[in-house]
């Protein structure tokens, strides 16, 4: 939806644009709301990273939170520039993040511990190279949805085996934010003409960013609880200032 305003970054080269007018507030930021809406994702990921490091969770969770931070910054760069090269800084980390979720979800039952991370690493590298060369469009979206669908049954299994009501609530928040975020994404992508007739733009893609930031945080926190329960670390869900949930653990003392 370019509107003819001057652009510091030059003509749009990304394969996808969203239902937000370009360069309304600054010649340096193509889609203002789609850019700043990534801030909650980054802040929540830093909070999760601090909790994981401070309580000495397994490194996989630190890497997961860091991947959320990278994704947030990558998305900001993409929406600020709408350049194809910068689009890769958004889409490639999305796939890498889903590969991390697959590892965390399925690795406890994987009998060959070294093969799964090796395969995921090689797969992620090959995808990054292929996506940069061939510029997947609809193929990227279908691939991402497929990876998400692989995670959902496992998340549901963890949910039904979790007895703590506060942990189960995290899973419910994960499902609710995923549903709402997906609805916002679909409306922004396919109902742009209708939305443009409204007195104001509801900024569906920006809402997707905000909701997915909370979605990732709830998913990460729930998985940290489940993993701590597997390790007999006596996890419990507590709330920072009575609002933001996080997992508190008590590791057994080593003799």
Automatic annotation (TrEMBL):
Q: What is its main location?
A: membrane
- Please indicate which superkingdom the organism of origin belongs to: Eukaryota
Q: Which InterPro entries match?
A: ACER, ACER_plant
Instruction: Write down the membrane topology.
Output: Multi-pass membrane protein
Where does this one sit in the cell? Membrane
Q: List the Pfam families hit by this protein, alphabetically.
A: Ceramidase
Residues binding Zn(2+)? 79, 205, 209
What name is this protein filed under? Alkaline phytoceramidase
Q: Which UniProt keywords apply?
A: Calcium, Hydrolase, Membrane, Metal-binding, Transmembrane, Transmembrane helix, Zinc
Q: Name one GO biological process term.
A: autophagy
- Binding of Ca(2+), residues: 18, 20, 22, 31
Task: Kindly list the GO molecular function terms attached to this UniProt entry.
Answer: hydrolase activity, acting on carbon-nitrogen (but not peptide) bonds, in linear amides; metal ion binding
In the UniProt record, does the keyword Oxidoreductase occur?
no
Stated family: Belongs to the alkaline ceramidase family.
